[in-house]
Amino acid sequence: MVRGLNVMPMTREGTPNSDKGALGGAPPRKPSFKSAWRHARELVWAHRGRLALGLALMIVSRLLGLVLPASAKFLIDDVIGQGKRELLVPLGLAVLAASVLQAGTSFLLAQILGVAAQRAITDMRKRVQEHVMRLPVSYFDATQTGQLISRIVTDAEGIRNLVGSGLVQLFGGFFTACLALGVLFYLNWHLTLATLAVLAAFGGVMAFGFSRLRPLFRERGKIQAEVTGRLGESLGGVRVVKAYTAEGRERLVFAQGAHRLLRNVARSISAVSGVQSVAILIIGLIGAIMILVGGGAVARGEMSLGDFIAYVFFTGMMTVPIINIASIGTQISEAFAGLDRIREVLALDAENDGDAAREHVGEVRGEIVFENVGFEYEPGVPVLRDVSFRAAPGSTTALVGSSGSGKSTLIGLVMAFHQPKSGRVAVDGRDLAKLRLREYRQHLGVVLQENFLFDGTIGENIRFSRPRAEQAELEAASRTAHCHEFVSRFEKGYDTLVGERGVKLSGGQRQRVAIARALLAQPRLLILDEATSHLDSESEHMIQEGLAALRRGRTTFVIAHRLSTIRSADQILVLEAGRIVERGTHAQLLELGGRYRELYEQQHAVQSDSFINPGEEFNAEGHQAAAASLHAPWTKHPSGN
Q1: Of 543, 290, 530, the residue nearest 411 (C-alpha)
Q2: For residues 396 and 558, is the Cβ–Cβ distance under 8 A?
Q3: How far is 521 from 633, CA to CA, in rounded Å?
Q4: Contact between residue 515 and residue 481 where contact means Cβ atoms under 8 Å apart
Q5: Is 552 exposed, middle or buried (0-12, 13-18, 19+ CB in 10 A)?
Q6: Which has the closest alpha carbon to 335: 221, 171, 223?
Q7: How many Cα atoms occupy the beta-carbon half-sphere of 519 within 13 Å?
Q8: Spatial distance between the Cα atoms of 131 and 127, rounded to a whole number of angstroms
């Protein structure tokens, strides 16, 4: 069954996670205007200089805008009514000068606020990206990449309406409306009171409309993140999609998300258009009131024709900005919704928030001790149970076990991706939980089974562990990893682009690059998660030599499915159901005649079968998993093994 975009987030156990937000972790707090405004106020204050200058230019521009409607009174009453033609040229020049200055201030305003908005967006994106990268690994396990990208890129875009023209236009509209209101009361206070009554009703309609729009914008951001996330998964796994002819199913899943987005946008358009329709009605009502009340006042001689024309102009100056608040307010409501979503991410605790209070790591000898360690991803579902062992400095510890036994979880604890629920992990006699994470991880080198390469050159990917490494050091590490041989065959050598996730390299080539990357890091602690799984027998033999050199003098943890690759390990831990059921050297475990020997003999028995290619190692874990899949529905263990 294809997972749709409209389902609830799933937990590691595959059950609906109704208690958690879309981003995992604690349940999201209900957004409040107070908290959003506090966040917006902090953002505005950070850019107060440019905003203050923009506001000053806005005030000047709006004051200059009063010249044209004010000149109408003098034109009609004095120039036309009383024949004072000498005022005609000064009035024309005053209007022209005001228009030129107003155009100039408007241009400067757009430039200043545009730069301020882009600077604020950039700062916010940098802040969110930095915080997201400091979140624990468990957060990324529960969150789609597309959702994170939406938080960093799309949601931050909305703040342009706070520190850009939106907020200043909002204040500018109120300023102009207040000035015009004062003039209107001076010209005819009876007519102005009637106009204000109509505008008050419009204000109520706008307040109601904005209260409905903000939740819609929040929901739109969530839907967009889900659609983007699923689309990213489909494009990233396009080979799997095509292999299983699942294009139609992915089209259906995307269509479901797109239609959810369409329904949300349609509701938003209905709300906005409703407010705009009311605005048109308000303009008509005000026009009718001016005709009835204002026209009657002119007929009775209570207002001059010039006063009435000026009143019409100033009414427009007051009404139009207020009506425009509907559009500006919609943009600001959308910005607040984006700030709500960003605030949810920034409120999450980063894994190194307490680093300042933790101990400096200093030099690492490499002794790792597990003391009665227990761990669980979900409450009541233990993944590791009472695990205790010691890895001496410079020794190699191999982890063996069936799928879901806890091998990857144990490695995750060594890399400080998780914290034990009970017991402790000690590094050189010190509790790992009390050491500074960043300093500790600088001593790690990692070669994973699914090696990730960035879309750059081979050299850049190898240097990822030590960006300032010399070219000679890079090539030395590459030769040890038997990477230099195939790199030298490329026309551009180490400047060859590998493509997204290293797609232009074979699986074995990607793995050799990852081994060279780990070699270049010169770590004290080395993690090898089936580091030779994608290599043929000949390449594996060469790589084993490089790995032997890499392991020398370093504390190494190896997850091994090919038991023949771990004969030289100082100790082998056999895990089942989160417990260490056997431990010892290769020879000791074979002599013991337990689970390890059973796995070892099973591999060698199957290797001699005719359907195994010559030189191909048998993966007992994969065989067992494949056999089990014929009789049981697919499940995924929380440990991710």
Answers
A1: 530
A2: yes
A3: 42
A4: yes
A5: exposed
A6: 221
A7: 26
A8: 6
pLDDT at 541: 65
Is residue 418 left, alpha or beta, with left meaning phi > 0 and alpha meaning psi from -120 to 50?
Answer: beta
Q: Strands 430-431, 422-427: parallel, antiparallel or unpaired by DSSP? A: antiparallel
**How would you list the strands of the sheet with 444-447, edge to edge?**
444-447, 525-529, 555-559, 396-401, 571-576, 579-584
CB–CB of 462/483 below 8 Å? yes
Residue 342 tokens read as 């960003």
Q: What would the two tokens of residue 125 be?
A: 């994106």
Cβ neighbours, 10 Å, residue 44: 16
Strand 555-559 to strand 444-447: parallel, antiparallel, or no bridges (unpaired)?
unpaired
Residue pointed to by tokens 């904005």? 210
Cα separation, 558 vs 153, in Å, equals 38
Encoded tokens for 471: 């070219």
Closest-CA residue to 482 (of 508, 449, 521): 508
Q: What's the CA gap between 142 and 73, in Å, rounded? A: 67
* Contact yes or no for 195/286 (Cβ under 8 A): yes
Task: Give per-residue pLDDT as tens, 308-321.
Answer: 777 777 777 777 77
Check if the beta carbon of residue 301 is closer than 8 Å to that of residue 50.
no
Kindly give the pairing relationship between strand 525-529 and strand 555-559.
parallel
Q: How far apart are CA 497 and CA 515, in angstroms?
A: 18
> Which runs of consecutive H residues, i.e. helices, occur in 134-164?
137-141, 145-149, 155-157, 160-163
Residue with tokens 């400095």: 393
Q: Fill in the DSSP letter of residue 562.
A: S
Residue whose structure tokens are 């190494």: 556
> What pLDDT does residue 39 have?
63
497 φψ region: left (φ > 0), alpha (ψ -120 to 50), beta (else): beta
Reported as a single tens digit per residue, the pLDDT across 244-254 is 677 787 788 88
Q: Looking up tokens 């938080």, which residue turns up?
A: 151
Pairing of the two strands 396-401 and 381-391: unpaired
Integer Rg of the chain from CA: 35
Q: Residue 614's pLDDT is what?
A: 38
Q: Work out whether strand 525-529 and strand 444-447 pair parallel, antiparallel, or are unpaired.
A: parallel
Domains of the chain: 42-346 (1.20.1560.10), 368-443+523-629 (3.40.50.300)
Yes or no: say if 546 and 481 are a contact pair by the CB < 8 Å rule.
yes
Rounded distance between C-alpha atoms, residue 331 and residue 324, angstroms: 11
Q: How many helices (H) and strands (E) does the chain have?
A: 24, 10
**What are the backbone angles phi and psi of residue 384, rounded to the nearest 5°?**
-120, 140
Compute the average pLDDT of residues 86-109: 84
DSSP assignment of 14-38: SSB-TTS-TTSSSPPPPP-HHHHHH
Residue 20 has pLDDT above 50, yes or no: no
Q: What is the reported pTM?
A: 0.61
- Residue length, the chain? 641
